[in-house]
Design brief:
Low-confidence stretches: none
Order of helices and strands: HH
Number of helices: 2
Mean pLDDT: 97
Helix content: 55-70%
Shape: globular
Length: about 40
Amino acid sequence: MQVVAVRLTVEELEALDLVAAKSDMSRSEAIRAALAHFAA
């Protein structure tokens, strides 16, 4: 896997953390899941 730097607003990061926590995922896992859904 490669590392990709992404800039997020405070609000976006809070939303990401909330979704990740609810789904018992890490931030990276939640981002990968969102990207997979977006690309489908």
